[in-house]
Write a structure and sequence with these properties.
This protein has about 280 residues and is α+β, with helices and mostly antiparallel strands. It has 2 domains: about 5-135, no CATH class; about 150-280, Trna Endonuclease, Chain: A, domain 1, CATH 3.40.1350. The chain contains 8 helices and 10 strands. Strands 1, 2, 3, 4 and 5 form a 5-stranded antiparallel beta sheet that branches. A 5-stranded mixed beta sheet has the order 6-7-8-9-10. α5 (about 145-155) crosses α8 (about 265-280) and α6 (about 200-215) packs parallel to α7.
């Protein structure tokens, strides 16, 4: 049985006057299925390859805010918590997260159709409207955001996204915002890190950058533990560089743990236990 849905496309508008834009996400709402979710790509390189000159950190923060905001509304919808007035289409939901304005990120007008599986339709729309127009000269790679999405999905299934949130860990000279964090005695902060990259040099350089972050963050006055959510290379030739990258990461002086993407469900179960333990004291 098919159910009606509406969707809209999130665009990065580089120049309002000329109308230049690139699609960076899709949101979908199927009211009878109590489904509301989004698929957003905050991969800086995908946008900068079109236009260049974009501030990477700010762009990623905005995209994470939009993704998390829509996911939280979707959780409330699935849990049947009361809303004052449910919107008639997807724009009514996304406008609560990103109100219409003249900013660079804008949602398109709503369009619709019928679907037997809203999530599959969302993924199909994302692939057709966002991924298909990304020209890649090198072997396809996955971004940190792609890996983070793998871990966020089981957290959403367990209705945990509204119980966790971003956390900034600050050292003396450096700070970093982790998108998934919770507190149980100490702060537990998580970040997706993709090592599914194009060549061994990129893998080593990325590991060394994260080692530097760990060194700087270890000076924080707050007690914390890092959970590095790792995306492995899909090319078997890059397995050895990936092992060396983990060896580099293990040199971080702060408390840390690696979680592979194949353990995303187990990680969600662990987070749920941690939250329950904290709530029961």
């Amino acid at each position: 049985m098919k159910t009606p849905y509406t969707f809209c496309v999130l665009r990065y508008v580089h120049d309002v006057v000329s109308g230049e834009f690139v699609n960076v996400g899709v949101a979908l709402y199927a009211p009878s299925a109590q489904f509301l979710d989004a698929a957003c790509s905050s991969t800086y390189g995908r946008v900068s390859s079109f236009f260049g000159g974009i501030e990477s950190a700010q762009f990623k923060r905005l995209m994470r805010h939009i993704q998390a905001g829509i996911e939280e509304l979707g959780e409330r919808l699935r849990s049947e918590l009361p809303f004052e007035k449910a919107p008639t289409n997807v724009r009514g939901w996304v406008d609560r997260v990103l109100p219409p304005n003249d900013s660079s990120l804008q949602f398109s007008e709503a369009r619709g159709g019928l679907t037997s599986d809203p999530r599959v339709t969302l993924e199909d729309l994302y692939e057709r409207l966002v991924e298909r127009y990304i020209k890649r000269e090198q072997r396809p790679t996955r971004s940190d955001e792609d890996i983070l999405r793998i871990f966020r999905q089981p957290l959403a299934t367990r209705h945990l996204l509204n119980r966790i949130g971003p956390k900034t860990i600050a050292g003396r000279d450096y700070e970093h915002e982790f998108p998934i964090a919770w507190k149980n005695g100490v702060w537990h902060a998580s970040e997706g890190i993709s090592f599914d990259l194009a060549n061994p040099g990129d893998i080593s350089e990325k590991a060394n950058r994260w080692l530097g972050r760990g060194v700087n963050l270890s000076e924080s006055k707050e007690r914390f533990k890092l959970y590095l959510l790792l995306g492995e290379p899909r090319d078997d030739k890059l397995r050895a560089p990936f092992t060396r990258a983990k060896n580099i990461l293990h040199k971080m002086p702060c408390d840390h743990e690696f979680i592979g993407e194949d353990a995303a469900d187990d990680f969600a179960a662990f987070v749920e236990r941690e939250l329950r333990q904290h709530e029961t004291g």
